[in-house]
Amino acid sequence: MTETLATTPDLTHAREVLRHTFGYSDFRAPQDRIISHLIGGGDALVLMPTGGGKSLCYQIPAIMREGTGIVISPLIALMQDQVSSLRQLGVRAAFLNSALTPEEAGQVEQQLLQEKLDLLYIAPERLLKPRTLELLRQTRISLFAIDEAHCVSQWGHDFRPEYMQLSLLHERFPETPRIALTATADKPTRREIVQRLSLQQAGEFIAGFDRPNIRYQISENNGNAKQRLLQFIHQEHPRESGIVYCLSRKRVDEIASWLQANEIDALPYHAGLDTQTRQHHQSRFLRDEGVVIVATIAFGMGIDKPDVRFVAHLNLPKSIEAYYQETGRAGRDGQAADAWMIYGLQDVITLRQMQVASDADEQHKRVERHKLDAMLAFCEITSCRRQRLLDYFDDHLEQPCGNCDTCLQPPETWDATTASQMALSCVHRTGQRFGVNHLIDVLLGKENDRILKFGHHQVSTYGIGIDHSAAQWRTVYRQLIAHGLLSVDLEGYGGLRLTQASRPVLRGETQLMLRKARKRKAKERGERPHALELSDSNRPLWQALKSLRLELAQTQGVPAYVIFHDATLMEMAQKRPRDKQQLATISGVGDRKLERYGDAFLSVLKNNLESEQDLPADGVN
């Protein structure tokens, strides 16, 4: 589809809106092309990494075009967050969702009918109601923006059936431009978005998937996951915000309590908590600094917090898409962040059992198995993780990234052909129906009731593996599953079975190199891409600016980042503007915020300068 290009005056106007409303000097590619296309009335499919500026692609055209921009968003918290941020900028924005009373919803509807809104955020469920569609029919609409468009894919990690009905927007409002946006969609998902939303004539804008500011780190769980998580937070991210993902509610509560007992401000979040508690914990995470949320994957989709410095997984995600989406909640401000994960073989078995127990049809289960296989293979690779991650999404990085664990500390490999033959033979000799723990006991020649009961002390593989420890055998089995040489049984008991791919190894026709378990050692931090640079002389000013921001945020009942992002305060501390004209050149300071907060921040900057001038020179008493 050829892109419809808006006229130069339109782009000039768009840049003025960007500068004066949002406080940024210029667009990032391909924002300008997307905005130009949408202003010209064209439909668009936009794939842009988290933190890449997707929202501006529809917010600016909605402000510029006549009428109200309707934004379909699946999550209440995300709507409220974006509306709060837009109102800070002087943009006329509102939302319609279940959080409003009938009276409040009625007021928003009147604002819409009276054309007093630039943007209205609404959930797909509410949009599809006949009453809402009739309301929109009476309204002049500038555009429809379908956020989190991957929710339309029945094969995706966050399928929402309501999204499949959004093609009616094209049927009922054929002249209104539509833009579908997502940060997570491989080629099949993109094709499904186009088909289900009737976007065959839309311009496609793909900005890539790379998040170079995120450092990827994955390691095996040797039974000390809690201690290693605590060490990671204390050493890498003390008093910083982060998210810790666990597979079960019980594990969430356990880890949150453990972190609290070790002086980490941690809060649990899962569906087993009452609504009030969940909302309170989410609110604290958004508004307070240094809060760590421990959660099931139910948490995060509605979170637009820019200064999450790390996302940690204590269990294996079910797919690379889920991993990318969850880790993408770190470092939305573009500054250095960590995606840290520890996982074990039990994670694979648990996820396999969950897949078998689900009510999905066989085709869906098969797709889920393939996705889990790809996730497991991603964990076990010895090459650059970022390259493999991007390859999965048909995006490509020419050189290793230098900012993942396999680049920074390349894993060692060993010739595991003989050990693998022993492990595979043990699966065969015991009937292909036992789990890893039992197989390891057989290899190590253990004498226990279970081995004697099944006569496994008499099989040829009994005791042949005593040259390796139980931990080493566990690593071997995990990697054999990752390489597709073994599969977990589909009956839900966790037994291992040989696959066709295991035959060449068993016959000695191929060599098998596996990665050695990584020895834990003190990690050199090294240079972090996109890390906030702050000299010692600027730290007092930085803290003073943050204190003012927090005070303003608490007064208004909004998160601190809604006032200004960290990067904006950092630039203030570095450039030290002395008047409003200079302050207006700081990225993120638009006209409304300059008017509203300029005097207060300039006062802090002035007081800091005077304090520095009052200090005695070096060497003078």
Short characterization:
The protein has 621 residues and is an alpha/beta fold. The protein has a 7-stranded parallel β-sheet, with helices on both faces.
Morphology call:
globular
Give the % helix: 40-55%
Q: Compute the number of helices.
A: 27
The CATH topology of the largest domain comes to: Rossmann fold
The largest sheet, given as strand count, sense and whether it forms a barrel, is:
7 strands, parallel
Distance between the termini: 73 Å
Tell me the name of the CATH class of the largest domain: Alpha Beta
Mean pLDDT metric:
88
User: How many β-strand stretches?
Assistant: 17
Count of discrete structural domains = 4
| Strand line-up of the largest beta sheet | 3-4-2-5-6-1-7
The assigned structural class equals: alpha/beta
What's the alpha carbon Rg, rounded to whole Å? 27 Å
Specify the CATH architecture of the largest domain: 3-Layer(aba) Sandwich
Taken as a percent bin, the fraction of beta residues is 5-15%
For CATH, the homologous superfamily of the largest domain is named as P-loop containing nucleotide triphosphate hydrolases
Residue ranges: pLDDT <50 for 5 or more in a row? 1-5, 521-525, 617-621
